[in-house]
Amino acid sequence: MGYRERRVELIATRAAPHLEPGEQIQTGFIAQTGSLIFTARVWTIIVTDRAILVVRGGRAERFRRDVLLGAPTGMYHSIELDRAYRVHKQYFQEIAAADEALREMRSRDDSAPGDS
């Protein structure tokens, strides 16, 4: 199993206890808060079709799925949820995938029959 597959498995394992029935993982990545080695805290952010989950230590906070995470640049990208999370560039593909999935969900909602 390669590095990418292990990352996907890690995200799925951390997300599993916090998912609602039928909820689907779209992507996930690791983020940090704090600025120094001794003050940095690591979080797992899981993006589903219903929510953004921030997981740490077996606990999860759920946030609305209507948040675009933004186009990442530089070495670290900042995401604002309940606080500022910094995401290393190795996860920029996952951030882009999360935003693309949200845009697709919005376009499906806009084209749903019966909307007037």
What does this structure look like?
With 116 residues, this protein is an alpha+beta fold. It has a single domain (3-110), classed as PH-domain like (Roll). 28% of the residues lie in helices and 34% in strands. The protein is built from two helices and six strands; from the N terminus they run αββββββα. It has helices spanning 3-15, 92-110; strands at 25-33, 41-48, 51-56, 59-64, 76-80, 84-88. The protein has a four-stranded antiparallel beta sheet with strand order 1-2-3-4. Strands 5-6 form a two-stranded antiparallel sheet. Strand 1 (25-33) and strand 2 (41-48) form a beta hairpin. It is globular, with a radius of gyration of 15 Å. This is DUF5753 domain-containing protein. It comes from Amycolatopsis minnesotensis.
Alpha carbon gap, first and last residue: 49 Å
Low-confidence stretches: none
Count of the separate structural domains: 1
CATH architecture: Roll
Largest sheet: 4 strands, antiparallel
Would you tell me which CATH topology applies? Answer: PH-domain like
What's a concise summary of this model?
By secondary structure, this protein is of the alpha+beta class.
List keywords for this structure.
single chain, 116 residues, alpha+beta, PH-domain like, 4-stranded antiparallel sheet, two-stranded antiparallel sheet, 2 helices
